[in-house]
Design brief:
Distance between the termini: 23 Å
Shape: globular
Largest sheet: 3 strands, antiparallel
Order of helices and strands: HHEHHEEHH
Oligomer: single chain
Helix content: 55-70%
Strand order of the largest sheet: 1-3-2
Structural class: alpha+beta
Length: about 110
């Protein structure tokens, strides 16, 4: 079966979903939904090593999910695309919803 040619950029969507496909990165996005935060604050809140948090933030930044602002020696991160928070809320809703019974699915 040949793939349908369309205006959908499946590669871009796959890159975004790949960047989000890790529980710690999802937690970072949730923390950044409310306000801009420093790496040290995120490290403390998640209980992860600074190098781990920085690596996750780099991946999210490269995917266009977060942006960084430097202030002195501090790096402040914020959610660049608020739509991502909505995407995650929808994904959580789907993931936690009970599965339909077999006879309802057909």
């Amino acid at each position: 079966m040949a793939m349908e040619s369309s205006t959908h950029d499946h590669e871009a969507v796959a890159r975004l979903l790949h960047a989000l496909a890790e529980p710690s990165r999802l937690a970072l996005v949730h923390l950044l939904t409310g306000a801009e935060r420093r790496v040290v604050d995120l490290t403390r809140e998640l209980g992860l090593a600074q190098s781990t948090v920085s690596a996750h933030l780099t991946m999210l930044r490269d995917a266009g999910v977060v942006a960084v602002r430097r202030e002195g020696r501090s790096s402040w991160y914020r959610l660049l695309r608020p739509e991502v928070a909505h995407l995650l809320a929808d994904a959580e809703h789907v993931a936690l919803a009970p599965l339909p019974r077999a006879e309802e699915a057909s």
